[in-house]
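Help: why these numbers?

___
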Amino acid sequence: MKQTITRISSAALLLALAASCSRTEQVAPSQQPTAATVNQDATRDSNLAMGNPSGAVTDATNSPNNYLMTKTQYTMSYSRDKGKPNWVSWHLSSAWLGSTARQDNFAADATLPSSWYHVGSTSYSGSGFDRGHNCPSADRTGSVADNTATFLMSNMMPQAPTNNQQTWAGLENYARTLVGQGYEIYIIAGSYGSGGTGSSGYATTIDAGRITVPSNCWKVMVVLPEGSSDASRVTTSTRVIAVNMPNTNSIGTSWGAYRTTVDAIESATGYNILSAVSSTVQATIESKVDTGPTS
């Protein structure tokens, strides 16, 4: 009788343990996939996936003013004589974003050819123009190294404070809002022309003539749902946001007021901004002015 009771007790215990394990296995999988699927398609893709707008090359001797610089965080065409980038191209998805604080460690870019003038952290001091990021700090918060790269002076352009801190910043913030909605974005930004108006008035150059103050700051954003093979997924219905802002302190603060076409920016700069996209698709999307939401 005692053996029978023991067998029954043991069987009951085993059944209880089995049930407990079964509940644990059911709970754990229901939690983990949730975390895994939030950004299941978000990856760090090529910063130059939409093409090389100016055909920049890594040739300091023959192409000093269209010099290709490829970093993990962004790719650019740099102009030695203007002391600033012609354009900077980068990919933005949730895979690039984290909790790293803004480093504010502005520094000269040591990867520029050694014989060139290296714009320094204080080169804009007293000019009335901000050290305006092309690729913004808040787009690269995945690590200290990523954020630090955005503070290299090769990524800066002399930007009127109102433009940089309000109008331009508003569009940067909106881009990250789209990422939070499940999109990834390819962004190409740059500047052209000569002569802007900062907080100290009009100027064509700063830093004893070594840095050109642009007349205009422009940006193109290609907005895609998270996915892969990105250039081939751009269609005639893909949202493309293009802006062209005067580099002046009297600029309006709503970025939406400065929307234009990619065609217009290409006409002003001579670039082929979305060269990796089908020419048929380009013909449609580059001629449209975006009319989507601005916040």
User: Anything to note?
Assistant: The CA atoms of residues 7 and 169 lie 73 Å apart.
